[in-house]
Amino acid sequence: MKIAILPGDGIGPEIVAEAVKVLNVLDLPFETESALVGGAAYEAYGHPLPEATLKLAKDADAVLFGAVGDWKYDTLDRPLRPEQAILGLRKNLGLFANFRPAICYEQLTHASSLKPELVAGLDILIIRELTGDIYFGQPRGRRIATDGHFPGSEEAFDTMRYSRPEIERIAHVAFQAARKRSKRVTSVDKANVLETFQFWKDVVTEVGRQYPDVALDHMYVDNAAMQLVKAPKKFDVVVTGNMFGDILSDAAAMLTGSIGMLPSASLNEKNQGLYEPSHGSAPDIAGKGVANPLATILSAAMMLRFSLNQPDAAARIEKAVDQVLSQGLRTPDIYSEGTIRVGTVEMGDAVVKALA
Ligand code: NAD
After folding, report:
1. Which of 281, 284, 345, when mutated, tests ligand 1's pocket best, judged by the most ligand atoms within 8 Å of its CB?
2. Distance (Å, rounded) from C-alpha 7 to C-alpha 283?
3. In the chain, where the domains are located
4. Cα 201 from Cα 214, distance rounded (Å)
5. Residue 348 binned pLDDT confidence (cut-offs 50, 70, 90)
6. For residues 72-96, average pLDDT
7. Protein residue with least CA distance to atom 22, ligand 1
């Protein structure tokens, strides 16, 4: 098994180092190789995703990714900005399925903006289609309108589109994931207004007939947003398109309290995947030794489960994280009175110790 390690920028190298430390004590047969990505790669090679980094990622069974970006690169031409590296990796590796679990640990319920009883024990999985929809649909651009409400004025436009195979493959991913959980899928759409999402609903319904053991329901995206903050525990697996998934997964993330706790996985058809925390490079705290490494450590656990076929090792990591939280250890983002404040390295060390 080969893991490509791409730490990136900001807090990326600090949190990835802790995840690698955790992986190394598991005594599993894998090799790792690191490469620069994002702003760090731009500084060294003039490009955020150099050929050698892309090749390393393509040849690996899995990629463990930190985060990229810094405000100092915001004036660069768009193709040279650090964030382009993620888009390039998604595209080149065909990573169409994004998994974002939103789990609220009992020990952290008070950190949520919702009442503890609404989020205690929350465990939902948002599956977002990642390579289609209005984010990638062509044509797009700016032009002078020839019709509409203001003919002759400047306008901008994008194209929302989904093909049958794109919807079928993400639907299969969702139903199969639900089989390993409580066997419920909610497909989120806007079928009442958008042709693309009426088609989405029809195709998901058809695929669902192949999974009679999984209950499928459909929800409009506006209602889904409302239900997420009203009664989030109603959901199990949520499957949706790229744009709705982008928005709903961030809302779901905040239900759990801190973005520093949330892992993610993006998979292709061969189960090769890119694993990264849901947060960014946090330049405001980079180098201070205070970043929460748990989202990255939990991403490494997802990597073991989904791409490296090591479910037992994944479960061991998740249990160790639960244990350090029960011991009261907290990085500043999840700290509250009565708990023990620790830094990035101490948190990683504690997970290693819990594993032992
Ligand atoms: P961010 O997620 O980096 O930070 C938002 C806030 O959360 C900050 O206050 C930060 O200190 C805090 N935070 C984030 N991760 C944390 C952790 N592990 N522990 C403790 N606190 C944490 O989002 P932002 O500030 O909007 O973006 C910063 C940079 O990251 C930008 O350049 C952006 O483009 C980039 N970004 C990258 C990715 C990615 O690499 N996948 C994702 C989102 C944003």
Report:
1. 281
2. 14
3. 1-96+268-356, 100-261
4. 16
5. very high
6. 94
7. 260
Q: Which residues contact 252 (CB under 8 A, 6 or more apart)?
A: 100, 102, 124, 126, 228, 232
Q: Which one-letter DSSP state was computed for residue 303?
A: H
Compute the distance from residue 338 Cα to the ligand 1 centre, in Å. Answer: 27
Q: Which residue has the higher pLDDT, 260 or 85?
A: 85
CA distance 80 to 89: 14
Main-chain dihedrals φ then ψ at residue 234, nearest 5 degrees: -65, -25
Question: 1-96+268-356: what CATH class?
Answer: alpha beta
Same topology between domain 1-96+268-356 and domain 100-261? yes
CA dihedral (163, 169, 173, 179) in degrees, to 10, reads 110
Secondary-structure class of domain 100-261 per CATH: alpha beta
Nearest of 137, 220, 214 to residue 176 by alpha carbon: 214
- The catalytic residue among 91, 222, 234, 270 is 222
* CA distance linking residue 195 with residue 229, whole number of Å: 27
CB 279 within 8 A of CB 261: no
Which residue, judged by its Cα, is nearest atom 30 of ligand 1?
Answer: 280
From the CA of 15, give the closest atom in ligand 1. Answer: 18
Instruction: Convert the pLDDT of each residue in 305-339 to its tens digit.
Output: 999 999 999 999 999 999 999 999 999 998 888 99
Query: Taking CB atoms and a 6 Å cutoff, what residues make up the pocket around ligand 1?
Result: 11, 15, 67-70, 83, 86, 259-260, 276, 279-285, 291-292, 295, 333
Give the ligand 1 atom nearest the CA of 67: 40
